Amino acid sequence: MTRIIVLPHAEYCPQGAVIEAEAGHTLCDALLAGGIEIEHACEQSCACTTCHVIVREGFDALEDATEDEEDLLDRAWGLTLCSRLSCQVIVGTAPLTVEIPRYTINLVREEKHG
Fold first, then answer.
1. pLDDT digits (tens, 9 = 90+) for 24-62
2. pTM for the predicted model, two decimal places
3. Long-range contact list for 66-73, CB < 8 A, 24+ apart?
4. Are strands 2-6 and 96-99 parallel, antiparallel or unpaired?
5. What letter does residue 22 receive in the DSSP assignment?
């Protein structure tokens, strides 16, 4: 099992969290299984940026982002050099520390509530 530290986020995990995940699963699935209800509007099909995370530790141990993921990340709020879409990150054996950005761009939700 791989240890994932999730830094505190006011909505998703105010105290932060430590979860364990099996290698080979997506980071988004690991977060959801750990009780962190991160948004994933496109159902993890790499078609939005709602599951954007910042990998604060362990970034170099991850597989490189695909061109599609990089193109989408260009539209993410709070983009950093360590930003990834959690639906595209495959958990390996290296421990990770992730931060969920304060805001996300969810066009579906904004259109319904706009």
1. 999 999 999 999 999 999 999 999 999 999 999 999 999
2. 0.89
3. 72/46, 72/47, 72/48, 73/49
4. parallel
5. -
**Distances in whole angstroms, Cα of residue 2 to Cα of each of 12, 27, 29, 101:** 20, 11, 13, 22
What is the rounded CA–CA span in Å between residue 74 and residue 43? 19
Pairing of strands 2-6, 17-21: antiparallel
* Alpha-carbon torsion angle 30, 32, 38, 42, nearest 10: 90
Mention every residue, 6+ apart, whose C-beta is less than 8 A from residue 104: 39, 49, 50, 52, 76, 77
Q: Which of 7, 11, 50 is nearest to 28 (CA)?
A: 50
How far, in Å, are 11, 52, 66, 114 from residue 33 at the CA level? 17, 17, 24, 30
**Gap between the Cα atoms of 84 and 49, Å rounded:** 9
CA dihedral 54, 57, 59, 60 (to 10 degrees): 160
Alpha carbon distance 59, 42 (integer Å): 23
Question: Quick check: 20 and 112 in contact, CB under 8 A?
Answer: no
